[in-house]
Specification:
Elements lengths: L2 H28 L4 E2 L4 E8 L12 H27 L5 H20 L2 E9 L2 E2 L5 H18 L1
Antiparallel strand pairs: 1-2, 2-3, 3-4
């Protein structure tokens, strides 16, 4: 294996470890409570059975399973795309972030029957939807891809 591949694997592994550790810490530290750090940052554990911002949230297992299968299929397709991009010598940093984040959230779907979200950012009366490290990695990855393809 060459250095680039090791770097991509290290990036994916780092995202995976940071996401898992922070989710376990949130489960242990927050429980059912909101932990306010300051007026900008607080933590509250929420189990998201939908996708981003709770879209397609469903309490029925059939819809949850279908959404999870679609997410898994898109992740597999992105792995294939990233692999072929890598073979062509292209950078796949964005794809790596998205794949790692998606795998982390898929693991939550299997283990916890929902994705563990816990980070709340707010300013005054405005609040960003609850998210996690994997979600942040996905957003960063998408941002990198958009930036790459705008060139």
């Amino acid at each position: 294996m060459n250095k680039k591949l090791y770097r991509y694997l290290a990036l994916a592994f780092s995202i995976f470890i940071i996401d898992r550790v922070t989710k376990l810490a949130a489960l242990a530290w927050c429980g059912e409570f909101v932990r306010t750090i300051n007026s900008f940052l607080s933590f509250e554990v929420v189990f998201n059975r939908g996708i981003s911002w709770g879209m397609f949230h469903s309490s029925t297992d059939i819809v949850f399973g279908l959404v999870s299968l679609i997410i898994a299929a898109v992740t597999v397709a992105l792995c294939w795309y990233a692999y072929h991009n890598y073979l062509r010598g292209n950078a796949v940093i964005g794809e790596t972030c998205i794949i790692a984040g998606s795998l982390c959230n898929l693991i939550d779907r299997v283990i916890y029957n929902g994705v563990i979200d816990f980070i709340i950012l707010s300013y005054g009366n405005l609040s960003w939807p609850v998210f996690n490290v994997a979600d942040a990695a996905i957003v960063i990855g998408v941002g990198i891809l958009v930036f790459q393809y705008e060139k």
